[in-house]
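Async update (no meeting this week)

Hi team, since we skipped the sync, here's where things stand on the single-chain job. The sequence we agreed to prioritize is pasted below, unchanged from the tracker. I ran it this morning and attached the output directly underneath so nobody has to dig for it. Comments welcome in thread, and please keep replies under the output.
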Amino acid sequence: MAQEPNLFDALSDVLVTRFAAARGSVAALRLPERAHLGAVLWRDDVLVTSEQSLPDLEALEAVLADGSCVAGKLAGRDPATNVAVVRLDKAVRAPTLAASVPQVGALVIAAGSDGGGRPSARLGMVNAVGPEWHSMRGGRIEARIQLDIRLAASEEGGPAFDAAGGWLGMTTFGPRGQILVIPGATVERMAPALLAAGHVARGWLGVALRPVAVPDELREAAGEATGLMVMSLSPDGPAAKAGVVPGDIVLSVDGTSARRLRNVLAHLGSDSLGKMVSLRLIHGGAVIAVEVTITERPEA
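Output:
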């Protein structure tokens, strides 16, 4: 009598097949301070990896899925979206990465490498999917994808796939031990810009802000219970030139409440340079509005 197919064996076979098809996109970057860092073979001559874990190096060595080593150079990095791109000295054949829309509860494979070309895989699920968000550095990320999975430090920066083989994006470590995915859509938007210019220009107000409560006697006029206090300013920054001083409390930017810093950062994207925004703030014990022209954030 023929044995009935086992559901778990069938699922295992599917996952093995999916990983084998995606394996060609898995790479690693050898680093002097640690063994290696995961990466995605995004194009025939371009790797994408986690910017936050990549040292300040120009020359790099990549290890591909077949174990071959290819020299490369850092072509650009963007701390705000945690995307870095490395251009390889020679082109190799990169598999097509078919983007996938993440679904909560879906199985996910996080792919990595041991640094010698031998692959590693972690199985988990999509724990949560949120809308577009802005990082604390002001980067726009198309979706917040959180995984119920564990990663070794060397596996960060590798690709994440769903059980159908669809590419979710690049894995990275988030706050409080979370494992996040930088969506494929974010990588597709950022990588060409980084290859072209090496960095992404973003807007800047020239202020350091801290959440505070609005004084009770000003809450009615302010229309807000909390705001962002100006702790310090760059003397030549846009806010200082507009008359903002330390101790002012920012209430809104162009009508958007400043209860959260991310609300302010959302107005400082790449398309904000040269724009004038209205800052509503508490200044000298009164609620006023000032016009500020956004300029490019200086490079650190």
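Quick observations from my side:
The longest strand covers residues 119-130.
The two ends are 71 Å apart (CA to CA).
Reply here if anything looks off.
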